[in-house]
Design brief:
- The chain is an all-alpha fold and 76 residues long.
- It has one domain.
- The termini are far apart.
- InterPro entries: YjiS-like.
- This is DUF1127 domain-containing protein.
Length: 76
């Protein structure tokens, strides 16, 4: 089966499955982009700003340097 045949087959009987998969991937990419941006901003905060939100520099650095795909509380 060629790539074109596989693509046509997905569009045929499984169009809603394909749409759901594309939507899932899009949501993941948006989430990962948000996580990357948030962690980058966290790493730029001053010690005073971190103290205002009750976060130590050690905790902030630990969060800031986690992989962008790490969305759970599990350590990586």
């Amino acid at each position: 089966m060629t790539v074109i045949d596989a693509d046509l087959q997905l569009r045929g009987d499984h169009g809603s499955l394909r749409s759901a998969f594309v939507a899932y991937v899009y949501r993941k990419l948006v989430l990962w982009q948000h996580m990357r941006r948030s962690r980058a901003q966290l790493s730029q905060l001053s010690d005073e700003a971190l103290a205002d939100i009750g976060v130590s520099r050690e905790v902030a650095n630990g969060e800031a340097y986690r992989p962008f795909w790490a969305t759970s509380k599990r350590p990586y």
